[in-house]
Amino acid sequence: MRVERERGVGPVITAFSRGGFKVEAGEFIGVYRALRIWPDGSEEWAPPPIEALTVEALGALLALDPRPEFLLLGTGATMQRPPPSFVRGCEALGIGVEAMDSRAAARAWAVLRGETRWVVGALYPL
User: Fold this and answer.
1) d(Cα 58, Cα 5) in Å, to the nearest integer?
2) What are the φ and ψ backbone dihedral angles of 72, each rounded to 5 degrees?
3) pLDDT at 4 over 80
4) What's the CA gap between 48 and 86, in Å, rounded?
5) How far apart are CA 105 and CA 98, in angstroms?
6) Which of 11, 49, 75, 85 could form a disulfide with 80 if both were Cys (CB 3.0 to 4.6 A apart)?
7) From edge to edge, which strands make up the β-sheet containing 41-44?
8) First CA to last CA across the chain, in angstroms?
9) Residue 107: CA atoms inside 13 Å, Cβ hemisphere, count?
10) Cis peptide before 66 (omega within 30 of 0)
């Protein structure tokens, strides 16, 4: 799927398929099988199984200053619930968790960053 790019909002997920998520940020274009994305950057990551997901697995993504409003958690090809301990850990940091399948998370990223919302994303492979 191709997603329209908003200008001036940092990295944008412009397309996705089973091969990964295409991210564009200025001159940079990359494709990531699994993706961590924030308003100023993006990177590949090796996520643990969803049932083993911890706050520590997301590292600096949740420690940004200012803190993100919430985390878009793309759980892969289908929506899966993250562990309650993970959600509680994020909420203890003042960060909400919005879990959805990774395709929906990629689309939501474009909309929310187009609104200049301060959010982060962690997307499991499709």
Assistant:
1) 26
2) -85, 110
3) no
4) 12
5) 9
6) 75
7) 41-44, 35-38, 120-123, 70-74, 96-100
8) 12
9) 7
10) yes
Single pTM value for the model: 0.89
54, 71 Cβ separation under 8 angstroms: no
Tokens of 59: 């590292």
Dist CA 19 CA 8 (whole Å): 26
107 by Cβ neighbours in 10 Å (0-12 / 13-18 / 19+) ranks as: middle
Tell me how long the chain is: 126
Partners of 21 in the beta sheet?
16, 32
- Residue 97 near residue 73 (C-beta atoms within 8 A): yes
Could you report the per-residue pLDDT of 10-31, keeping only the tens digit for each?
899 999 988 899 999 888 889 9
